[in-house]
Design a protein that fits this description.
globular, alpha/beta, two-stranded antiparallel ribbon
């Protein structure tokens, strides 16, 4: 059985995977991630994955290809030694970007920071006071 928990933060989506990425559940992972590919970065947290079979590897490769086509950055995080060994044996370790929890945290922090910097509207300069006023489109006292 495979369970997925999806967290979105701005342009970054983290999918926490738990259980086994095996046939026939690998298709569930593929379907869930295809729905998230409108994001700038997608991080798969594999810390709680206990097994991956050929179908699971196929799902990961398929997701990597789809992410490349859509311009989405795909990263694997918390890869267990067992999964890391499987990727190495199948020569797929170089096909995936693996990030540490620290790198994922940096990615999430940048997403938060970029969301905070989104302008609310154009600046309007008040000729009488020579100061900039941020036009938010709302009226004071209305």
């Amino acid at each position: 059985m495979l369970s997925l928990r999806i967290q979105r933060l701005g342009d970054v989506t983290v999918i926490h995977c738990a259980g086994r990425i095996l046939f026939p559940h690998a298709g569930e992972l593929r379907a869930a991630i295809f729905r998230q590919l409108r994001t700038r970065a997608l991080v798969l947290d594999l810390a709680d994955v206990v097994a991956v079979d050929a179908s699971g590897l196929g799902a990961l490769v398929s997701l990597r290809a789809q992410a490349q086509q859509t311009g989405t950055t795909l990263k694997l995080m918390n890869v267990t030694p067992k999964t890391e060994n499987l990727l190495r044996i199948t020569h797929l370790n170089s096909a995936f970007e693996v990030c540490s929890a620290r790198e994922a945290l940096d990615l999430l922090c940048r997403a938060i920071h970029e969301n905070e910097l989104v302008p609310l509207g154009p600046e309007i300069h008040d000729a009488d006071t020579s100061r900039a006023i941020l036009n938010t489109g709302s009226r004071v006292g209305a």
